[in-house]
């Protein structure tokens, strides 16, 4: 609303743009709106991005995301990518999203992108735990070093 006061005082577009750190084009657009509808015309129309999915559709997508890519028909690689999620949304909800839109959608709903640990589908957690307890201690050697124990380059070695 500060810009409306500046328009009323007759301030120059370039000066307003410089002080508000916006482009002169934006100021000219605001001035045109102000001339047509006054201060009310400058009120925010809300966020630009609109949610395309209903709450019910999002819950369905979220359930599929949580179930994993294999359950959604992506068996070759067990990672969710933005492209795959866009395909999933298109298949299940018949709504199209750009990759940026998918990223923003996930962010709005509390999902974060992560690089998953690559694991075999045949992974046996019991076998791994047993190997760690029984075999690894016999293979692991303690670290030994002939270097002085101080890691500080400014501290002289105390011998």
TrEMBL record:
Bias kind Low complexity: ranges: 141-159
Question: Which stretches are tagged as biased composition: Basic and acidic residues?
Answer: 124-135
Pfam families from the xrefs? HTH_23, HTH_33
Location of the Winged helix-turn helix domain: 76-135
In residue numbers, the region (Disordered) covers 124-159
Q: What is this protein called in UniProt?
A: Winged helix-turn-helix domain-containing protein
What organism is this sequence from?
Answer: Streptomyces actuosus
The opening ranks of the lineage are:
Bacteria, Bacillati, Actinomycetota, Actinomycetes, Kitasatosporales
């Amino acid at each position: 609303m500060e810009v409306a006061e500046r328009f009323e005082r007759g301030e120059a577009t370039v000066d307003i743009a410089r002080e508000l750190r916006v482009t002169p084009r934006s100021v000219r657009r605001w001035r045109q709106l102000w001339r047509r509808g006054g201060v009310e015309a400058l009120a925010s129309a809300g966020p630009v991005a609109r949610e395309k999915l209903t709450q019910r559709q999002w819950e369905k997508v979220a359930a599929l995301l949580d179930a994993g890519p294999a359950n959604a028909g992506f068996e070759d690689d067990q990672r969710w990518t933005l492209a795959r999620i866009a395909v999933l949304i298109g298949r299940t909800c018949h709504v199209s999203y750009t990759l940026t839109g998918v990223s923003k959608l996930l962010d709005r709903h509390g999902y974060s992108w992560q690089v998953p640990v690559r694991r075999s589908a045949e992974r046996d957690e019991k076998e791994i735990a047993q190997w760690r307890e029984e075999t690894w201690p016999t293979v692991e050697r303690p670290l030994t070093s002939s270097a002085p124990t101080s890691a500080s380059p400014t501290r002289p070695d105390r011998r």
